[in-house]
Amino acid sequence: MEAVAADKKHTPKAKDEVVIRIKGLKKSFGKNHVLKDIDLEVHRGENVVVMGRSGEGKSVTIECIVGMLTPDGGSVKVFNEEVADLKDKKLKELRMKIGFLFQSGALFDSMTVRENLEFPLTRVLKIKDQHELDERVKEVLEGVGLLDAIDKLPSDLSGGMRKRIGLARTLIIKPEIMLYDEPTTGLDPITSREISELILDMQKKYKTTSVIITHDMECARITADRVMIMDDGVFIAEGSFDNLHRSKNEIVKAFFKDIL
Q1: I need a labelling partner for 230 at 20 to 30 A (CA). Which of 129, 147, 148, 177 fits?
Q2: What's the whole-model pTM score?
């Protein structure tokens, strides 16, 4: 794998805590060998962007991180716990430390924004005190700039606003790790940039560690401390956005061909 030194924002050091450690990860679906030999370490407080063509296994990788899929081989450790070995209770405890933002935002259409945000607090964290619920909801809505949308339904919101509310609902349980699956898909360039900058702001505010899957080069440029390029089931290059932009590898160059 081509390795290019990171030179942007946060540069992890060897002594930094590794919160996600993947070694030799393999995953197949029938005869389709999606992940062939994946190695990845993500340090606390770092934003790692994973890029690759459609069908390369990027989403499969993060689904293995949260235990939604079981690897065929290799190791996936989160906070030094082997995810595949965790029983239901321990897996649930781990997932409470991980926020997962889906492409759609996954809001409940029949619930107001307030009710959508209260749902994980009451169902997952079992919070009953209304004052605490109100304070938490207000905090995250202010963080994403949508406090005035608190009593609206998702159908009343634009695509970008729904993405922001989806992010707020994920952040409201204060996860230590955030997993983003194509967070800017379907958004116009201006809104995409706003969401990307918001991801960066949330990293700084909540000290989250993030894995961001995206095809959006501007999103990668804004959010990434480090970029990983996936091809044919393996990572072929890693480094900062700017240094990978200067890569001589033809596959890597193809991702950056329209970047000035």
Answers
A1: 177
A2: 0.88
Across the chain, where does the E strand assignment appear? 2-3, 18-29, 32-43, 47-52, 73-78, 81-82, 98-101, 177-181, 209-213, 226-231, 234-239
13 vs 139 pLDDT, higher one: 139
Quote the CA–CA distance of 58 and 51 in Å, as a whole number. 7
Residue 204, CA atoms < 13 Å, CB-side half-sphere: 10
CB–CB of 66/74 below 8 Å?
no
Report CA Rg, the chain: 18
Structure tokens at 235: 């990572």
Residues 6+ apart with CB under 8 A from 41: 18, 20, 21, 22
Q: Are 127 and 121 in contact (CB under 8 A)?
A: yes
CB neighbours of residue 147 within 10 Å? 14
β-pairing, 47-52 vs 73-78, is unpaired
Q: What is the pLDDT of residues 47-82, one digit of tens each?
A: 999 999 888 899 999 999 999 999 999 999 999 999
Q: How many CB atoms lie within 10 A of CB 50?
A: 27
A 10 A CB-CB count for 13 gives 7
Phi, psi of 82 (to 5 degrees): -75, 110
Q: What is the DSSP string of 98-112?
A: EEEE-TT----TTS-
Taking CA atoms, 117 is separated from 53, 112, 203, 249, in Å, by: 33, 9, 19, 44
Report residue 257: phi and psi, to 5°.
-65, -25
223 DSSP assignment: H
